[in-house]
Amino acid sequence: MGFTRAELESYVGALVPDLLPPDGRPLRLLLVGINPGLWTAATQTHFAHPGNRFYPALLRAGILHEPVDPSRGMTDDDRRRFTDRGLGITNLAPRATARASELSTEELQAGGEQLRALVRLRRPAVVAVAGVTAYRQAFGLRRASAGRQPERFEDCELWVVPNPSGLNAHETVVSLAAAYAEVGRAAGLLP
Q1: Fewest CB within a 10 Å sphere: which of 111, 139, 160, 174?
Q2: Which residues pair with 33 in a beta bridge?
Q3: In a domain, 37, yes or no
Q4: Can you give the pLDDT at residue 22?
Q5: CATH number of the domain where residue 94 is located
Q6: Going by C-beta distance under 8 Å and a sequence separation of 6 or more, which residues neighbour residue 190?
Q7: How high is the pLDDT of residue 166?
């Protein structure tokens, strides 16, 4: 499935709902993006841009057992398999933009507070924020670095992992998978 630039631009400001296990089902690992991109908004599937390495990295890490092709939208079976594993996805900022740089610090800080509320409600074992820069802005922690964070987050273990966007040229599927495997082990999803 492809989109024209005009079609994608029509999704600016659109919202994408969180992908979470049904209430009462355990949430082992909550993955936190910065905000939905336009492709994500168009497909209503998190991390959907074809250049995004999120799902291939989760598969390579062993967190997912079957490939997901989000560029056309996750199927109901994809969503069920994802949430049955105790996985969830949310974003710091809810509105879709062409670039994360279009978000204000205030939006990211408000998103940080919303994330705290979601974590208090759903009690995941581990929270993993994808992107150290957004994490720093959302929580005012200018010196934060990637990896496991020293402080607990609403009584949950907190990690900052690399952003899987194709724009993050420092990372590959292999390096992302290594970082995500650490988080998967912390959440009890991997040995």
Answers
A1: 174
A2: 91
A3: yes
A4: 95
A5: 3.40.470.10
A6: 61, 62, 63, 181, 184
A7: 78
Which pLDDT score is estimated for 11? Answer: 97
Residue 100 included in any domain: yes
Residue showing tokens 């989109």: 3
- Cα angle 3-6-10, degrees, rounded to a multiple of 5: 95
In a domain, 109, yes or no: yes
Q: How many residues belong to the chain?
A: 191
Query: Cα–Cα distance between 66 and 69 in angstroms, integer?
Result: 10
Phi and psi torsions of 130, nearest 5°: -90, 100
Q: DSSP letters of 107-170? A: HHHHHHHHHHHHHHHH--SEEEEE-HHHHHHHHT-TT--SEE-SS-BTTBEEEEE----TT-TT
Q: Angle, nearest 10°, between helix axes 105-122 and 132-139?
A: 90
Spatial separation of the C-alpha atoms in residues 84 and 58, rounded to whole Å = 15
Please report, as a single letter, which amino acid is at residue 70: P
Q: Taking the CB of residue 191, how many other CB atoms lie within 10 A of it?
A: 6
54 is a domain residue: yes
pLDDT digits (tens, 9 = 90+) for 149-168: 999 999 999 999 999 987 78
Summarised one tens digit per residue, pLDDT across range 102-116 is 999 999 999 999 999
